[in-house]
Amino acid sequence: MKNLLIKLAEEECVSIDQLKDRITRGTVAIPLNKKRLNIEKPCAIGEGLSVKVNANIGASPDKSSAGDELKKLEIAVEHGADTVMDLTIGKNWKKILAGVLEKSPIPVGTVPAYGAVCLGGDLEALGSDDFVDIVRQQAEMGVDFMTVHSGVCKEVVKVLEDADRLGGMVSRGGKIIYRWMKRTGKENPFYERFDELLDIAFEHNVTLSLGDGLRPGALADASDDPQYAELKVLGELAARCRDRGVQVIIEGPGHVPLHLIEENVKMAKELCGGAPFYVLGPLTIDIGAGYDHIAGAIGGALAAWKGADFLCYLTPAEHLYLPEESDVAVGVITSKIAAHSADIARNPELFRKRDDKMSRARADLDWDLMQKYALDPNIIKRAREKYPVGDDRACSMCGEYCALLD
Amino acid sequence: MKNLLIKLAEEECVSIDQLKDRITRGTVAIPLNKKRLNIEKPCAIGEGLSVKVNANIGASPDKSSAGDELKKLEIAVEHGADTVMDLTIGKNWKKILAGVLEKSPIPVGTVPAYGAVCLGGDLEALGSDDFVDIVRQQAEMGVDFMTVHSGVCKEVVKVLEDADRLGGMVSRGGKIIYRWMKRTGKENPFYERFDELLDIAFEHNVTLSLGDGLRPGALADASDDPQYAELKVLGELAARCRDRGVQVIIEGPGHVPLHLIEENVKMAKELCGGAPFYVLGPLTIDIGAGYDHIAGAIGGALAAWKGADFLCYLTPAEHLYLPEESDVAVGVITSKIAAHSADIARNPELFRKRDDKMSRARADLDWDLMQKYALDPNIIKRAREKYPVGDDRACSMCGEYCALLD
Fold first, then answer.
1. Domain ranges (residues) in chain A
2. Would you state the CATH architecture of domain A29-349?
3. What's the pLDDT tens digit per position in A323-340?
4. Does A258 touch chain B (CB under 8 A)?
5. Which of B359, B386, B387 should one mutate to test binding to chain A, selecting the residue with the greatest count of A CBs within 10 A?
6. pLDDT band at residue B61 under the 50/70/90 scheme
7. How far apart are CA B270 and CA B265, in angstroms?
8. Could you tell me if B29 and B248 are in contact, meaning their C-beta atoms sit under 8 angstroms apart?
């Protein structure tokens, strides 16, 4: 554990004391199951650290296989994802998750509600125990962080049902819990039995990522009563995590227009004691299907600049289909652009170094060095092969009129 | 002209008086050559109006043809570009430009410095007259707006040479002027003979777009002395445009980190009397080659939210090669995402309507309506063909666990 802190503090250019202090205050989390202390690329997420990027992989009920998902894992890692979440829903979920945990050099997250519905049969036949058991099972398997939709409790559901939402409830995990609650009439097990989740998380050092089942899925719903009612509950639960010595992350939206993003980040930080904030996007428009990774990068860059710590990637497949391998690559790179944009805005001295090297290489028309410093070296390599640069090293854009030639 | 104002005011949901007032004060420009008063899709750019998107097309010295560029024009228009600039450099520039002007339903811009170097021979053999003549020629051909790098004057060049820039000078047009000045020892003709440009622009109702030859091409150079020295000159020239009754637009960066974008926009507006501000990006990182349209969309969205009026698109080809047709499509859509993000942040009531319809369609899993309201209907159509949605209309992402099913 000491070596881990030394390694991470060095990577982040902070002192070990700073890092320890933030972990103690709960403003930094290191998602790392006790079973996986020796993974190759652990990471710390939160206050004053570089913005991290998560890639979602995982099969759908009827689509994909363990091999496909391992390939996506490889691509995500290769392109620089800091963590990966296996969101598989399907009979083979356990096999896929075990494979991902075995191969992944980076922290692995899950959504236990998905595991619960994979038990099969009618949703209402599941008992409260089934949900808690899945958390335990996944903790024992070695999962580093878990999204639990603990905020979708009866009190919050009432606020949702009283509201006139355009986009309704768009969280898959949150909706599973909601359906179960409506069909059984019972309270959300992840809320009612939160102390048991804390015990499990503490025992295995699982970081709890408090899911936002009521995140806005449409601009019209951003910052509405249901969203903030749930966030308030997440804040209370986050305090209980800290009291119990369990690491916690807060999940955030969703679809939020540019002018409401800063408010959303500040509110999450304030209500949740400065816990690391993990956003999905936010998407700044609703009409970008096919390009929602871009709408999400716009919102994600602004959110991270204003304090969000962790970006869940979006891919070109968002809202359309289960991401393919190429989508995973584009999604990771796009989120890294957003994260790096925010890093530079937060701390230019520290984070602009690679950009300065790239700019120097560009000014020198040194394509090998440009390839070295680019976020995606492969795309530069492919472009150079397809569109060779001229003898004067200018590209086909300007040729001899390249501004960078003397 | 009266009908034009009625049409544009209606489109922008402002009153004719508001529009007229802003045109008089020079905070709105309608780039439209007298010869092209009847084009199908004119547009107004500036204060309180929707953010516009320009697509650059045009052949390189050794690459592309008139037919290729007309195809790119068609694609740019089809994807929603508001204006197009023909940046051709090559012997056939006049033929290509004439074709673009004949076919383009949207305003067409040029960079006359490119036309000047196409006259052939050594750069230093060109006379000051040659530069002014090209402006006249293009005005007579019907060009609606022209980027003139009038700010690259001796005084500003001195500031550049005294500065220790990492990225140097990255403007192709600006560098042509700079090279000519260095080789001939003369003052920039677009600065020295600015009154003649005003006469030509006035006669043909050409909008002058004052180019930023010294825009930062690296984050390290953002907001530096050369950039602001040139901007100050552009502000003086903009005042001369207004005095002469010539419409004017100010061009801006470039590469600018997130935390300096608002300052850049405010400074441009302040120094230039609120003239419409036209930005290229700005790119918020330097290492995104292959994805620079995304880095540019992040910066462009923030810039436009804070007051920029006009976004020049960037494509995946930026910094790598002359854009192909597919790059043009992606570039336009990406910039439109940035522009629309800013529109919504500036005026949610007015600009969120289509998003709300999209969100309603999404909540209803109505794919035909989603296709109708999406920025790029084709990508939704293709995705649905490749990954058919299930009987319950959920997509392959979540299948039966789609949060939007009851």
1. 29-349, 352-401
2. Alpha-Beta Barrel (3.20)
3. 999 999 999 999 999 999
4. yes
5. B359
6. confident
7. 9
8. yes
Q: Each residue of B72-98: pLDDT tens digit?
A: 999 999 999 999 999 999 889 999 999
Please judge whether B401 and A89 are an interchain contact, meaning their C-beta atoms are less than 8 angstroms apart.
Answer: yes
Cα–Cα distance, B205 to B368 (Å, whole number): 43
- Pairwise CB contact (< 8 Å): A61 & B401: yes
- Tell me how crowded residue B356 is: count the other CB atoms within 10 A of its CB: 17
Does the CB of B333 have a partner CB in chain A at under 8 Å?
Answer: yes
Cβ contacts (< 8 Å) between A344 and chain B: which residues?
219, 257-258, 284-285
With a cut of 90, say whether residue B348 has pLDDT above it. yes
What pLDDT band is residue A360 in, cutting at 50, 70 and 90? Answer: very high
Q: For A403, which of B175, B302, B373 is closest by C-beta distance?
A: B175
Q: Do B341 and A403 touch (CB under 8 A)?
A: no
Taking alpha carbons only, the member of A57, A211, A208 closest to residue A144 is A208
- pLDDT above 70 covers a percentage of chain A that reads 100
Mean pLDDT, residues A369-396: 91
User: Does the pTM exceed 0.95?
Assistant: yes
A273 is written with which tokens? 């004691």
ipTM reported for the complex, 2 dp: 0.97
Contact A355 B285 (CB under 8 A): yes
